[in-house]
Amino acid sequence: MESQTEAIKMDIGPSPSFLMERKVHIQISGRQIIKTKLRKSCSCTTKRLKNIVMNFFPVLQWLPKYHCREYIWGDIMSGVVIGIILVPQAIAYSLLAGLKPIYSLYTSFFANIIYFLMGTSRHVSVGIFSLLSLMVGQVVDRELLLAGFDLNDDDDAISNSYEWNGNNSNCGKECYAIGVATALTFLAGVYQVLMGVFRLGFVSIYLSESVLDGFATGASLTILTAQVKYLIGIKIPRSQGHGIFLTTWINIFQNISQANLCDVITSVVCIVVLVAAKELGDRYKHKLKIPLPTELVVIVVATLVSHYGKLNEVYSSSVSGAIPTGFIPPQLPNFNMMHRVALDAVPLAIVGFAFTISLSEMFAKKYAYTVRANQEMFAIGFCNIIPSFFHCFATSAALAKTLVKSSTGCQTQVSSVISAVVVLLVLLFLAPLFYSLQKCVLACIIIVSLRGALRKFRDVPQRYHMNKVDTLVWCVTVFSSALISTEMGLLIGVLFSMLCIVVRTQRPRTALLGQIQSTAFYEDDWEYESLCPVPNAKIFRFEAPLYYANKDFFLKSLYRMTGLDPTLEAAKRKKNEKKQKEGNRGTIVKGLDQADTALHLVPNQVDFQTIIIDCSSVTFLDTAGIITLKEILNDYTELKIAVLLACCNPSVIDSLKRAGYFGKDCKKMHELLFYSIHGAVQFARGRKLLADGSRQSREKDGRREA
H or E segment at 670? Predict the structure, then answer.
């Protein structure tokens, strides 16, 4: 690549003060880059193998440097607290996933162990997440219906056979459900690992904060709706497809007369206790070293009351049922099912890694360390792939548990091992004790855990005041997630967010600039007072890239704000010239000589001779944008009006040079391109003086001839 020299006007004088010389960049062919990367990645040395293993298992890097005396107590404290929180949440979220509680406990155990080995964040808590549990549950319910199972039959005994042979008659409802969940989870993990392999983490940038918040809030409304039937103890058909939110509420009101009084009273008491404890915990969190284990206390007390009060036998209150101890033998996910859930795994994978990466980066920034986004995708991917062999379903990082983890002294992922040990104790010894736990208590825990997401509605006025477009994106995502479906809500939110970006670049702000008095700076004369107009020049600013979608808006704005459409003006002048020629041939205007006739027929001159386009906000040009600028240059040049470009970035300059905008060998570059607006104004003033001088000399010559 040869050295390029560009003559760009500076602020003073009509001649260039210096030449700006572009740096020489050595261009390497794509084939050479690929060869180099393949040679580097395929080299097999002891050092490289060691680096691969160390990078793939970050625990091997930080665990040998673990400061036991400094970190151990904080990790133990946070691990025990998270473990205590995980147990009731795992049992509760099994309702969302449409699975037995034992599978939620498996999921919590394996996810913590795997992320301890592979994660790069010190504080993120990975495990069951309400949104993913809901998404898994919707797919499980759909497949159960298609397989001919009754979704309302909650009393199926635990199947003794966990072998899947593709025959519904030999596999019960629970076996089929966990087969769907593990197939879905395995595929989601594979997608996440593939994203890491092909470095597709950029996909998460399209999930803006407004989209993620809106999706979480809309899904929370769906979760709340799904739990109401457990709160009041009624049996209603599980809705499928789009519009679950409205259909479920219609069924609730149609069957509300069947509400179980025992469940209603239990729900009211549990919600009051949980909300009061949460509010007290939030108010006095600076005084409390650890959060109150309210959920665990509520579950223990409710289980004792239900057991000794015989609420299931006397009042027909629905209970959790038997939870086995120990581990079920591992088995392969159901590969025959995967083609049916392949599309459902895509949003599951995207939402899982988006929440995990965003939380990892947020806490890394807060505590001043770095995380590797690509490794995080591998970690969360294998947190889904490996547990799918052990009857687990999809996991990701969860904000609430991560906040608790960091606030209770967590230093490293050793705390995840402690949490896994707590869950293991429940799996091995304590699980059967939850037999009499009412489902309405679990529903209360789920609903109260949604407080943070539902409180987002209170922030709408502040959000609207900050940014109206982001608020609109949030609202569209919320209502589409709630009223249509969670997956469609996420898709609609992303598409609508991208549409808003396109619309904002399609119709951006435009302005005419005036000069700040006695300075070399120029600003929008619509927004600021006491700006001085530049004589004989119009300075036009376009605050967006110039491309095919907004080129027409660019032209209309330029013509409207300068008050001159060059195409129409050229047509008028041609028409007047034609009239003038006809007048010279035979038309006599009484009382006027030939000079007066010509003066009468020539249109009024425009009040400017130069248009300066401020390109500081034009980030790129496409072919349509380049053609538009060339047409403007040609059209205005025909009217003897100069078009100057100012503040162009290097990529815009390169695009114009390749298109021949500056003429052959860029000879006109120093007359058309300027480093600053003030440089262009100074050039225009010098050009105007020369034009006036030449006009005056022509007038003197005309008088002498007369």
Answer: helix 669-672
